[in-house]
Request: fold
Amino acid sequence: MATNNQLYAPDLACIPTNPALICGEEWNCESDDDDGPPITFYIKLPPQHNRLNFSCRDKSSGVLLPTEPSLQTKEENECEDNRNDPFFFSPGFYLEAKTGFQPWPGARLMVEAFACDMKNDRIKHWQTKLKNKGLNLNILELGAGIAIVGTCLAALGARVTITDLPVLVDHGIIPNLRRNAKANDTDLNEKDYIQIGEGYARATVLDWLKPISEQLSNEAISSFDVIIGCDCLFLEKLVDPFLGMIEDLFDQSKKRPTLLFTYQRRNMKGVFSTLEDLLKRMESRGWSVDCLAWRSISVEGDGRHDLYLFEARR
Reply:
């Protein structure tokens, strides 16, 4: 199979990062957190550029533009050296959980697809759906990490169920939903919706190795218009569980939901999944897969990599 970008996006040129979406990161070395100062990653959504803030434990990787604030100064690096990882010995805290506590480029691309002007009819279709304030677009996010995408889509008007492993739900997703909630709306428990901007979001644990019918109600499963997965298909061991979960959602939902996912090329074949193999596995299940956008990103210490946004349907 050919590996050039024209195979996946024959009508799409490489798109630059949209300046209408503003991101940055900072941290507070005077934090009272015994485990080290938390990092704040933020996004300012167009057109009003309202700021959403996300606590995370690691700096972003390949997300920020050279002109955007990043944690690169000597003082900040000294601050970083004093940080510990409080979840290192927690049950189930594998690489996929650790990487969930930092921002990745796919999250930015996915938010751009809903928030910024992009020359693609399918992306414009989802933007139109999102702007229909009379009927919230129901979204399920898998492998949400610190909830950047789900929180932003809720702020834009969606109704989002944000899911991941227990350690990320408890220490990443729920704290960040509380942090961005509308005033006086911070009494959040798992499975409760909370208002963020124009929409709503809730957090719940979702294990890809267990049947979805044991974790979500039939009503919830049948309500989703869109399933989103950002930067969660990088490990080879995650691919089949993820695709199996999507297959179950396709089977059980009455709405015939669409999957929107990002994929970033990486080195270390065998540990990381390849795009070619991933697309073959999806096509073998009878799904149609289309590339909606792609760009080249620069990752500190690891050179340039291609990043894609795909739409998959049965």
Notes: The radius of gyration is 18 Å. The mean pLDDT is 86. Residues 57 and 101 are 6 Å apart (CA to CA).
